[in-house]
Amino acid sequence: MMRLRQTLASLAALLLITPGLSPALAQGNAEAGKTIYNQHCASCHGKGLVGGNAQSMLDGVWQFGAGRGDLVRNIKFGIAANGMPDYKDTLSNRQINQVVGYILAAEKQAAPPKPPLPKKLLTRDYDVDVTVVAEGLEVPWALTFIDNDTALLTERAGRLRLLKDGELHPDAIADTPAVFAAGQGGLMDVAIDPDYADNGWVYLAYSHALPGEGNNRPAMTRVVRGQIKDHAWTDEQVVFEAPHDTYISSLYHYGSRLAFDPEGHLYITIGDRGKQDDAQDLTKPNGKTHRVNRDGTIPKDNPFADHDNALPSIYTLGNRNAQGLATHPKTGGLWSSEHGPMGGDEINLIKPGVNYGWPVITYGINYNGKPVSDLQAKEGLAQPMHYWTPSIAVCGIDFVQGDHFPRWQNNLFVTALSHQELRRMNIQDGRVIYQEVILKNAGRVRDIASAPDGTVYVVLNQPGTVLKLTNGGPVLRQ
Ligand code: HEC
């Protein structure tokens, strides 16, 4: 009986930090949260959660991430650069959860209208018109153009979709490979062969699990190519598959993005799969950029091709989870965006044989607040071209080309999930000299693609939407 009572008591304690399970407990939590809020937060954020000098809690706009976990993180560790103090030494985890519960419940009750998608964006150089070209997608992941009127789009659940003449084909392409759609995994990037007009090859990166049941199956990122005929996937060939004894039972950090260099080599990113030390191990495929020929053979000049025991496809190492990859239209340089943990999101210039340092050096801190490493720099390990702390949750990237936005030509456009942003970065001589937020708070941004005609397509995660940005006229400077 004592035992049972103890079990019940610890269960109740658990419920206290688990929202929404018992109305009575939730009520008590909200009260506790309100007290904490009034004591610690109201002076800046306003008495009734609005009207202070700092950000309103009820307007439905979260600059630094809208998820429960984002709020917990922002309160616990603060946002030093913006004047938000940290509470890790002042409030317990339970108290932070209580105050977050109070804020989210009040926000729900206030039911702020979701900010509508903007129809116009005022940027430094252009008035930009925004149109919705596709809606109702399920976690769209990547968009790539075949020609000016035709694009392919992936949905993480495993669908390859066709966007033609501004219309989304109602049916997914049939017979694409079965993907292991769980956690962060599923169908990820899609890329078109540089000689697509002649050979019709389309490349897909996806999470591939070993046969079995359930989500605990070992899995890794795999790349295939195939052709699309009569709206169906055919003639599939495996282009990259890691040795099965390197597969890992985890549902995250698969990467994966694909890009070609001017010579036609294919680059593939794979995240660390949650095993950070593997990123430094040349016998492991995870935490790396790989380079293969388009038919899957290994280029003879790969940096570790002759290295004992190294996987010969490895091109760079020490990469935590690259979520963006793009080739500079002029220089041919390969640029990547990489997720840091909490802080330390990076933009890197990917060069053969280079070690980008994860997890030995990083500007990030772990989700438990402890630094991942005391080192931010070390001899022999590359520094990022640019980094963000706190993390913006950097995602797909692309260089804008063409004459549609002449002042944006060859600028790197960078997306962000949790910060819900599209950023423009002007890079000169390999340095980021200027950046501008083009789109903010329209939803989590997963990918960006420069269309052949120079217009810009933006993929929003949720709700799954594709936006098209067109030039509404240059801004007249005084
Ligand atoms: C000294 C003033 C101050 C205090 C005290 C303070 N904050 Fe903040 N808080 C800020 C500022 C400034 C920002 C950044 C707002 C901005 O840049 O628009 C911020 C941002 C935030 C954000 C992120 C908002 C977003 O848009 O994503 C959250 C969440 C938050 N505060 C919660 C709290 C909570 C909960 C407390 C009390 C435990 C608290 N703050 C106490 C000043 C404060």
Account of the protein in words:
The chain has 6 helices and 25 strands. The protein has 478 residues and is α+β, with helices and mostly antiparallel strands. It has 2 domains: 109 residues, Cytochrome Bc1 Complex, Chain D, domain 2, CATH 1.10.760; 355 residues, 6 Propeller (Neuraminidase). Strand 20 and strand 21 form a beta hairpin. The relative contact order is 0.11. About 3% of the residues have low confidence. Bound molecules: heme C. Heme C binds next to helix 3 and helix 4.
Task: Give structural attributes.
478 residues, alpha+beta, Cytochrome Bc1 Complex, Chain D, domain 2, Neuraminidase, 2 domains, five-stranded antiparallel sheet, four-stranded antiparallel sheet, 6 helices, 25 strands, 33% strand, globular, binds heme C
In brief, what are we looking at here?
The chain has 478 residues and is α+β, with helices and mostly antiparallel strands. The chain has helices spanning 2-16, 23-40, 42-45, 68-77, 93-110, 196-199, and strands at residues 120-122, 126-137, 140-147, 150-155, 159-164, 167-168, 187-192, 202-209, 219-229, 232-240, 258-260, 266-270, 288-292, 314-317, 322-327, 334-338, 345-350, 386-388, 394-399, 412-416, 421-428, 431-440, 445-450, 456-460, 464-474.
* Strand neighbour order, sheet with most strands: 1-2-25-24-23
Shape field? globular
CATH homologous superfamily grouping of the largest domain? TolB, C-terminal domain
CATH class of the largest domain: Mainly Beta
Number of helices: 6
What share of residues are in beta strands? 25-35%
Helix percent reads: 10-25%
Number of strands: 25
Termini Cα gap: 80 Å
What's the CATH topology label of the largest domain?
Answer: Neuraminidase
Structural class: alpha+beta
Outline the biggest β-sheet: 5 strands, antiparallel
Which second-level CATH architecture of the largest domain applies? 6 Propeller
Bound molecules: heme C
Q: What Rg is obtained from the alpha carbons, in whole angstroms?
A: 23 Å
Summed over residues and divided by their number, the pLDDT gives a mean of: 90
Give the total of domains: 2
Uncertain spans, ≥5 residues at pLDDT below 50? Answer: 6-21
Q: Give the oligomeric state.
A: single chain
